[in-house]
Amino acid sequence: MVRMRGRFGVAFCRHRRMCFRVEEGILWCLKRHRGKFVSLLHPISAFTLLSVIVFLFVYELGYVLPLLTDPLGMWHKLNWLLAIYIVFNILGNWWLGFMCNTAVDSVPPKRQHPTVGEAHLWHYCSSCQKLVPPRSWHCRLCNQCILKRDHHCTFSGNCIGHNNQRYFLAFLFHLSLGSGLALVYNTLLVWKSKAFMVAEPLFLINENHANDPDFNWKYTIACMFKLSFFLFMVPLAMFALQMVMVYRNSTCYRILDRSYDVGWRQNFEIVLGKRRFWTFFSPTISSALPNDGAQWFQRQHV
Ligand SMILES: [Zn+2]
Ligand SMILES: [Zn+2]
Predict the structure, then answer these.
(1) pLDDT for 70-85, tens place per residue?
(2) How far is it, in rounded angstroms, from Cα 93 to Cα 111?
């Protein structure tokens, strides 16, 4: 038994050593080729997402909607307006989130240093070689410390942190809304065309489709229905995760840390600002944040 444990222990140590070497190798590569990596990763991610948005917009409004509603009717026009409003919100929040500086350098110079009695809460960043506020963490891709760092977003090409989380949240909300609307259109079209089961592998094996002249068309819309279901679930899951993080005043970087939870109303205000959920209506609505991201009050333990 002892021998087995010994063998297992040695194998475990070797495995850990190997993982550590791989991790070190990745970090070394990242440090050395950060510029090239970032200049490739960010445009590719952003272009992919933009292509999906444009494709869905054109397919749903140009192809699916005219099959469901009268193109000259009021219902058709209202759907167009709703879709334009959602796309405006997606692109607007995406752009403002990208433009927003949420690095430690964004706080006024006099707040770049801890005030009296605060020093023990700040920590030293060996990469930036300076003291940084609590909840600020270094991002290897941005190569700077980020205020209340949540995660690095390859689609917006920067980190999501204290100053731009509001835009990220609204961006995900409208992505979910837009893809949800596309899913509703696709469900109605598939239902109307009796094509629900057409793209199922078992159905394809057992049935003879030679007599159905609309088979290819039905197959395409059934596949689009499945794709739109997937495109709805991804942003919805991300939005739900972000809502949980904001509700608890945690971050994806420190997912279990609830020491800054000051009650859900205040937690949402910290991220969305004074106007809270009104910010979801438009990215242009100004909503001042209650703090500068350099000072954080921890929950009082009873
Ligand atoms: Zn740093
Ligand atoms: Zn980053």
Answers:
(1) 999 999 999 999 999 9
(2) 27
Q: Return the H-helix or E-strand segment holding 69.
A: none
Cβ count within 10 A of residue 232: 21
Ligand closest to 104 (CA) is 1
Q: Please, are residues 105 and 128 in contact by the beta-carbon 8 Å criterion?
A: no
- 227 three-state secondary structure: helix
**pLDDT of 242:** 96
Cα of 209 vs centre of ligand 1, distance in Å, is 62
> How would you classify the pairing of strands 158-160 and 151-153?
antiparallel
pLDDT of residue 233: 97
Question: Which ligand has the nearest atom to the CA of 153?
Answer: 2
Neighbours of ion ligand 2 (CB under 5 A): 139, 141-142, 152, 159
Q: Report how far ligand 2's centroid is from the alpha carbon of 103 (Å).
A: 9
Please report, in angstroms and rounded to a whole number, the separation of the first and last CA atoms in the chain.
46
What Å distances lie between residue 127 and 119, 133, 275, 302, CA to CA? 19, 15, 36, 37
- Residues, Cβ < 5 Å to ion ligand 1: 125, 127-128, 138, 145
Task: Please report which ligand is nearest the Cα atom of 140.
Answer: 2
Give the ligand with the smallest distance to the CA of 125.
1
Q: DSSP code of 220? A: H
pLDDT of residue 218: 87
123 beta partners? 132
